[in-house]
Amino acid sequence: MKIAQKFAVIFLFHLVSWNINAQDLSYAKSCIKTLCSEEFAGRGYVQNGDKNAANFIRQEYAKHKLIPLGEKYFQPLGFPVIYYPNEVEIKLDNRPVFAGHDFILNPGCPSVKGTYKVLQLDSAMIDNSQEFKRIKGLNLKNYFIVVDDIKNKNFIHPERAKEILNNTLKAKGLIYKNNKTLVWSPAMDFAPFPILYFKAGTFPNLVLEMEIKIEAAHKVHGTQNVLGYIKGRVQPDSFIVFTAHYDHLGKLGNDAIFPGANDNASGIAMMLDLARHYAKNPPEYSVVFMAFAGEEIGLIGSYYFVENPLIPLKKISLLLNMDLMSTGDEGLTVVNATEFPYLYEQLKLCNLSGQYLPDIAPRGKAANSDHHYFTEAGVPSFFFYLRGNYHHYHDVEDTYEALTMSKYNEAFMLMVDFANWRMREYIDKNKK
Ligand SMILES: [Zn+2]
Fold this sequence. Notes:
By secondary structure, the protein is an alpha/beta fold. The protein folds into 2 domains: about 25-85 and about 220-430, 3-Layer(aba) Sandwich (Aminopeptidase), CATH 3.40.630; about 90-215, Glucose Oxidase, domain 1 (3-Layer(bba) Sandwich), CATH 3.50.30. It contains 11 helices and 19 strands. Helix 9 crosses helix 11 (about 410-430).
């Protein structure tokens, strides 16, 4: 071999080894962009949103040559859900307002169609005994009652406020106006009556009539967890598990699409990038990748897996759940830190030696993402979420374009270091 050739080979080797050892931010970004695109319809319960997302994840698993768990990577399951197949339409005195942008519905909002009168109540009316008595005497079945951000006010008569909010006045529905954000969530059951939350400045002080058309439907939604793994070189029957939920809220009519870029396309992207990484750098343990369905409606996919495990739960030495992974300027929060102090200390050491994130913050146990049922089943598990200057949550503005991915590389490296430490630690211990 000539010297020039040798150099070329060495150069190439370095290039390749750098590539296979590092994260791939552009790959992660392209995954998020795809998962947030219109075709995926907010990865929810309309227009095959979550099915398309599951198929995309399956394709990526196959690309990285993951070994399938379940039937071609799928573990099917189902659960009931309320969904909104058609346009959600509201007009205030003939002026249209838009779902997701001007207003949002309560989870499980029942169907309502027609033209209704509007009764706006302020705290003076509620606090005045005579006036309140008069209002209570009205027949309000053709009315929507409007209150101004009532939860945050100090009422002299909180029991009266409660009567209104619980709709003991038997109005057709309620409207909260002047909300800061329009946060939505899916539901399994119908709510007892419709509630509309209007963003600050979108519900005028004087409205006489409201025209409304909301068609809520109920179904048992068939979905699937998407599961695959890379076989360990040294100890294939021990497992490190990376999890993230791929579902989000879907759509509310045609105007409101909830892309869920941070929640949780970002976690899925990091999980797929980890799959890509470990496929090229075969690990000592088997490394399993679990993309869960039905998280937003109540951790259904991960619960189903824990009840019907496709690997022995006792053989999982560490599970890392990623949910909300697009920031990091303010650091990382670790749910379950206080449950597993030894692991938490090691995580901090990994972060210190790699100089990755500015802060690692501990949290206690919380049933707030897919790690939860694994923890309950005795699996050592952490839920990681990154913190930073990003304030869109369960709203239509949690978009691909809004993400910065500012500490993606650092968070990725921390995951790998920590997972690799755990494998090495077990293997070293077993040698003794
Ligand atoms: Zn989430």
